[in-house]
Design brief:
Elements lengths: L4 H18 L6 H17 L23 E8 L8 H7 L6 E5 L3 H10 L3 E7 L7 E6 L7 E8 L9 E8 L2 E9 L6 H24 L3 E7 L7 H10 L2 E2 L23 E5 L3 E8 L10 E7 L1
Parallel strand pairs: 1-2, 7-8
Antiparallel strand pairs: 1-12, 2-4, 3-4, 5-6, 6-7, 8-10, 9-10, 11-12
Helix pairs in contact: 1-2, 5-6
């Protein structure tokens, strides 16, 4: 119920407007209730339009490749519709440096390896369910990105969903990358487990940042909006920054819905040592999710 706050706000604005026009009294109980509910929702939404203090530098960067930044792309495919032709055609036109894909099946992985001619596969763990994953990097060596190591971990350790953890070197810094995927909140049981996953990520991130000087980027399908209570708790505990801050409402799901009805469940969080200079949502690629692009700069 926390996720459609934007939709709640729009409904409340319309209701308040109609009530003011049709009511003899401009101030009545109904208007007060609508206004209070609207302000509560805006309290959670408005901060997304305010960049963190360290992001007060220019947010409008050129689309041309920048040697001082890394452009990451997160794509959630649809394991129930494994044909990745449309996604491949779109992604080959992008100049992303690091490409993570979720819900990769054995069939779609064959297509991706053959079709993504501008990228090279680093590693993959295809599955017939929604747990499959693949990591590609750009073939053209325009930036000195070095892959140090990578592997699959589970957060929490009892989780049956493998997560890709990688370590790269860039501009003399070590960056840990985690491609995250949270269970979909379909019922009370999955909602409860989603809370366990997000709390476990908070603990994992906090320990990593406290015990090392590495930078950290967590990107993926969180199946949660930024104003969800557990998501906000994750940010507070982990010390990570939501890349969406300063870029407004960038909705990614469901791709078949108009923007006003979609919600933001694909996210990128990063350590305070990084700054988001550009963030945008891509076009329809034949999945129920839209791709997410995040350009980060090392401070």
């Amino acid at each position: 119920m926390e996720h459609p706050r934007v939709q709640y706000s729009l409904i409340l604005i319309v209701a308040l407007f109609v009530s003011v026009l049709t009511s003899r009294k401009r101030i009545n109980l109904w208007n007060s209730i609508c206004l209070t509910a609207l302000l509560i929702n805006l309290f959670f939404i408005v901060p997304l339009f305010i960049p963190p203090q360290q992001n007060s530098i220019s947010l409008n960067k050129s689309l041309e490749p920048n040697l001082e930044t890394i452009l990451l792309t997160h794509v959630t495919l649809n394991n129930k519709k494994p044909d990745a032709t449309k996604a491949i055609e779109y992604l080959n036109k992008q100049n992303t440096d690091i490409l993570f894909l979720l819900e990769v099946t054995p069939q779609s992985l064959i297509q991706l390896k053959r079709g993504l001619t501008n990228y090279q596969l680093v590693t993959a763990f295809p599955k017939y369910n929604s747990h499959g994953i693949a990591w590609f990097i750009r073939k053209e060596k325009t930036k000195p990105i070095k892959v140090n190591n990578f592997g699959f971990i589970r957060i929490p350790s009892s989780n049956n969903r493998p997560l890709l953890k990688a370590k790269i070197s860039y501009q003399g810094r070590e960056i840990v990358l985690l491609c995250f995927h949270v269970i979909s909140p379909r019922n009370a049981k999955t909602v409860a487990y989603q809370e366990i996953e997000l709390d476990a990520l908070a603990d994992w991130s906090q320990k990593l940042l406290q015990n090392s000087e590495q930078d950290l980027i967590v990107i993926g399908d969180f199946n949660s909006t930024p104003w969800y209570g557990v998501f906000r708790r994750l940010l507070n505990k982990s010390g990570l920054i939501n890349s969406q801050r300063g870029f407004g409402i960038q909705t990614t799901w469901h791709s078949l819905l108009p923007p006003v009805l979609r919600i933001s469940i694909d996210n990128c969080l990063h350590s305070k040592s990084l700054t988001t200079v550009r963030r945008f949502v891509g076009q329809d690629i034949g999945s129920d999710h839209l791709p997410l692009f995040v350009e980060l700069k090392l401070d």
